[in-house]
Specification:
The protein is α+β, with helices and mostly antiparallel strands. A hairpin with a 5-residue loop joins strand 1 and strand 2. The chain has two domains: about 55 residues; about 130 residues, Jelly Rolls. Helix content is about 25%, strand content about 35%.
Length: about 200
């Protein structure tokens, strides 16, 4: 290859690399700016929330049993948040402390196509989907589909079999991926006819 051609190709390669570096630097700067704007807006919202002393609320589905032994589901809201440190010197945060006598944690992976027969929750338990989707159908016919970001409190331990032999609830996976659930099982005795008892 002639020296002039080699020199031209080297200069062209060097120019392309320089353009690439400048573009990468601009892209990194833009990403950093977006991240900073996002963090500032989040911080501003959090600061405004704390400064205005406006407590947040948290929604969950409560699977509960009525006085006739029929299971139901009700969307409930926890509103009793207090702005305090979880443990000094940690900065204050909004906390809602649900009183309970102790608990155990269970992780469950429901395979694709899994359908649980009608059953009651083994204990009063918080059920938090981590990934995938699933549904719960109660004896009153209500079907609620849940995924990551949803929470359910299962407390249908005192149901009575209906005419079809159904008791408690029916649950199953939805879609083409397993449903991973974290359950926090309480030692508390189940209640009857107390939907949204944590409000």
């Amino acid at each position: 290859m002639k020296p002039a051609i080699r020199s031209y190709q080297a200069n062209r390669f060097s120019l392309e690399k320089t353009k690439e570096r400048k573009f990468s630097k601009r892209l990194a700067n833009a990403a950093a700016m977006l991240l900073a704007i996002s963090a500032l807006s989040s911080l501003s919202a959090t600061k405004a929330l704390a400064e205005n002393n406006v407590p947040p609320s948290f929604n969950y589905w409560h699977v509960w049993t009525d006085g006739q032994g029929v299971s139901h589901q009700k969307k409930c809201e926890i509103r009793n948040f207090v702005l305090e440190s979880i443990e000094p010197p940690a900065a204050p945060q909004w906390l809602s402390r649900l009183k309970t006598e102790g608990a155990s944690v269970v992780i469950s992976v429901l395979p694709v196509g899994w359908v649980g027969i009608w059953h009651e929750n083994p204990k009063p338990q918080w059920i938090i989907p981590i990934s995938g989707r699933w549904y719960v159908k109660t004896m009153d016919g209500q079907r609620v589909e849940m995924g990551a970001g949803d929470v359910s409190f299962g407390e249908d331990q005192n149901t009575k079999s209906d005419a079809n032999g159904h008791k408690g609830h029916l649950s199953a996976t939805v879609g083409n991926e397993p449903s991973v659930l974290m359950m926090i099982q309480l030692k508390d005795s189940p209640t009857v006819n107390q939907p949204c008892r944590f409000d």
